[in-house]
Specification:
Layout: E1 16-18, E2 21-23, E3 27-33, E4 36-46, H1 49-68, H2 71-87, H3 89-100, H4 104-125, E5 130-133, E6 140-148, E7 151-155, H5 163-174, E8 178-182, H6 188-199, E9 208-210, H7 215-224, E10 228-234, H8 237-248, E11 253-257, E12 262-266, H9 272-284, E13 294-300, H10 301-316, H11 336-351, E14 355-358, E15 375-378, E16 394-400, H12 403-411, E17 415-416, E18 418-422, H13 426-435, E19 440-443, E20 459-460, E21 463-464, H14 469-472, E22 473-481
Parallel strand pairs: 7-8, 7-10, 8-9, 10-11, 12-13, 12-18, 13-16, 15-16, 18-19
Antiparallel strand pairs: 1-2, 3-4, 5-6, 6-22, 11-21, 14-15, 17-20
Amino acid sequence: MNRDPLVPLVTSPFRHYINGGWETGATTGVSLNPSDLDELVGDYVRADVRQTDSAIEAAHAAFREWSLGSAQRRADALDAIGSEILARRDELGRLLAREVGKTLPEAWAEATRAGQLFKLAAADALRSFFQPVMSARAGVEIDLTREPLGVIGIIAPWSEPLAIAAAKLGAALAHGNCVVFKPAESTPACGAALASIISRAGLPAGVFNLVMGSGRQVGARIVAHPLVAAISFTGSAENGTRVLQAAAARQARVQLEMGGKNPFVVLADADLDSAVDAALSGAYGSTGQRSTSAARLIVERAVYEPFVDALQTKLAGLTVDHALKHGTDIGPVANAAQLERNLDYVRIGLQEGAQLLRGGRQLERATRGYFFEPALFAGEPEHRIAREEIFGPLAVVLRAEDYDHALHLANDSAYGLCAGICTRSLSRARHFRRHVQAGLVTINLPTTSVEHHAPGGGRKASAYGATDATFWTTVKTAYVAG
């Protein structure tokens, strides 16, 4: 692996990486800095169906060598990728901040997680997936082994373009699969930077392929192609449903990680200062653009007023500005569509009778950017702002009569990704953990306090399919007569 700092991380135009080589595309697009729309992050190329097919066919051709090769080789390559990511954490973090609008501390933290995830995948590559099973017959042995699937299409989101991509890519490659990777169209620089690092790790040509472009063309082709054995998708529930329907038509394996409308419950016995800090971080950290963000703040009546007052005070102290500027607490939202979506939901909330307690305006700063003042509403459970995913720094606080009512409100959602509770009561915490309808639960922590290396997966409209080795592999059962 080449860690020479003179090797550019990524240069514009950002190109596809197919069958071990860099390629131009059929058309081009631009990536702009959401903190400064006058700054070009870079040009990127878009693939057409032909190039997408070429990447899939290259991955298919490379599968036999990669899947039957040495597990140590896989581990060494993944470890090298993780090492270079960690060595270039600052560089990757600045690129991420420029392309997505995360503050530098948030961007550096994500780059670090990405490197750690590849190193974790390196360890997984060396794990044995052999399991003996007792036979009911004398003289017969039964062995279970897990084998790779083949070509896996990975469609990653713009919200965490390094960490989520690293988790998926590392797991797919560790288990001996080959990959066709499509980053979000609005984060081509982050996708190309990952590909640049992966290209230097010594993988055989075709094992890893990067194709950039729209979901309508490139993403849809990956999902529909008969040589793609499985699809791992992170994005909206609407797009996830379309992926599932298309993949089901040809019985391809699917893993979907979709949206959330996550509840954060504050009981009357909670440490109020800690609860406010956890709500602030969970609802507004990363500009509210994480699937695990706390969008519904459910507060027991006895502490409702002091909680709301304290949260408003904390919000008033936040600085919204350029992501690279020292002292910025919240950067811009990632793109124009997300800014308009935030503003639309502010209008919807007001039209439906919710009370806008603070924020909700587009802001002007020294540079042209997608700056939005974090919004806090007091609302009712039936309001759309309390039921529909917004994916921005907009939260609604709901009043609960008691714990049972709070639990009911937490579960009253089409989504079931994660949920949090703040309480000093061990019995309430245990009950909530057992009875809340969510795949991830936090206790006295922000809902965003989750780690990519731990099993995740939500319920209801938030997720579909396995997230562990059972997704990336298939089981082979062997019966052996002694």
